[in-house]
Specification:
about 400 residues, alpha/beta, Rossmann fold, 2 domains, seven-stranded mixed beta sheet, two-stranded antiparallel ribbon, 9 strands, about 10% strand, disordered N terminus, GTP-bd, GTP binding, P-loop_NTPase, transmembrane helix
Length: about 400
């Protein structure tokens, strides 16, 4: 019984590659949203990824890895601790493109499709023909039509000062540019029956001079959250609540890793076999500490680990063990254990993140400070888990 799980626990005899492979296997079971972006080159798919993740263009570009001849995958923040995954189909318009290859590869492993079309682009036969095939294959998967580059209809002018589009399934307000209104109306007719809702938006680099470079972005995020199944919606809500308010680059880079590892820990803890997941969760927490040290460019040795975790590690292990006994109560125990593993992993990661930040600023935290921060972050993790488990939760 132990053999399938012991590979997830890093030891001196276990290589980094073995642990990463084991973590990737666990990630396949985690509720990580996979969004299938479908559209022509230049339609704005990468802009949507940058908006949802907050990363720079160059990071998105270097993070892609091929999936099929025409599609690539981007895992955020990385493939080992994913919080979000994007599949970008780029082969539209090529003479030999056929969606059958994508459908075989990942057609049933995506929770949501986003069809990305420039609002004023009406040469869309290849998009429509492929979408009809994909829709027939999975008629129940939600599909959002993202109409981008609205400014193509009014070059040289600004977006409306007040966003005229509401969050209805197919918004078409009065008072907008007449060319844009006619074009949007035509797009709705063209995609009728193929998409479940539409979101007109315009995401532009700040240096292009628009008064709102994320015009319609919040509406798209809300549409995605509403369309995703509950468990996957929770992941995106956690990302938005924790990362969005931050300005510090290092923290923005570290927190998705903490969330991703916490999700993996919760997934491991939900395995309905009492006692076997404690080493898994503890192993993920250890790996997280080293990952954060690399992000902060800090040295991590045995003495530092003993200082930070010495007063916390035993307590965490004991409390996890107590919650393990609840697994003998079907479903209820699994849910409690997953929440505990998420909270302890998140709190531990936040302590390490705070510790490295303090060291960088010239302050060496005391053991009392470490315990205080851990307690605060454990409470925050519990509140985050509860808030984002609600089916009615919205981004903060």
């Amino acid at each position: 019984m132990w053999n399938p799980f012991k590979k997830l626990f890093p030891s001196r005899q276990q290589s980094e590659a073995e642990f990463l492979q084991a973590a990737r296997d666990l990630a396949l079971r985690a509720p990580v949203p996979v969004l299938w972006l479908f559209g022509k080159t230049g339609s704005g798919k990468s802009s949507i990824i940058r908006y949802l993740t907050g990363v720079e263009a160059i990071e998105v570009g270097t993070g892609y890895r091929p999936q099929t001849r025409f599609s690539a995958r981007y895992d955020f923040p990385n493939e080992n601790e994913p919080v979000l995954s994007f599949l970008d189909t780029r082969g539209l318009g090529e003479v030999d493109y056929n969606p059958a290859e994508e459908l075989r590869a990942f057609g049933r492993d995506t929770q949501l499709m986003i069809i990305v079309v420039r609002a004023m682009d009406h040469a869309l036969d290849e998009v429509l023909n492929a979408l009809k095939t994909i829709r027939r294959d999975s008629p129940h998967r939600p599909v959002i039509l993202a109409l981008t580059a609205l400014h193509d209809a009014y070059p040289g002018a600004q977006h409306p000062h007040v966003d005229p589009f509401d969050e209805s399934p197919f918004p078409l307000p009065t008072g907008i540019d007449e060319n844009l209104r006619r074009s949007i109306e035509k797009q709705y007719e063209r995609f009728h029956g193929l998409v479940d809702r539409a979101v007109p938006l315009d995401l532009t680099p700040p240096d292009e001079g628009f008064n709102d470079p994320t015009f319609g972005g919040p509406r798209l995020k809300n549409a995605i959250i509403e369309a995703l199944p509950g468990a996957y919606r929770q992941t995106l809500l956690q990302l938005d609540e924790v990362v969005a308010p931050l300005k510090d680059y290092t923290w923005k880079k570290a927190l998705p890793v903490i969330l991703g590892t916490s999700t993996l820990a919760a997934t491991a803890a939900a395995i309905p076999l009492p006692w076997v997941d404690i080493p898994v969760v503890m192993g993920l927490q250890t790996h997280l500490a080293y990952k954060l040290a690399r992000i902060h460019r800090q040295r991590l040795d045995a003495a530092t680990i003993a200082k930070v975790t010495g007063h916390l590690g035993g307590r965490v292990a004991i409390q996890l063990a107590v919650r393990e006994s609840l697994k003998f109560i079907p479903w209820v125990g699994m849910a409690v254990n997953a929440a505990a593993a998420f909270a302890y992993t998140f709190a531990g990661g936040m302590v390490w993140n705070w510790y490295f930040t303090e060291i960088r600023n010239g302050h060496v935290p005391t053991e009392s400070e470490i315990r205080t921060v851990f307690k605060q972050q454990l409470q925050r993790a519990s509140e985050l888990w509860k808030a984002t488990r609600s089916g009615d939760a919205k981004p903060v």
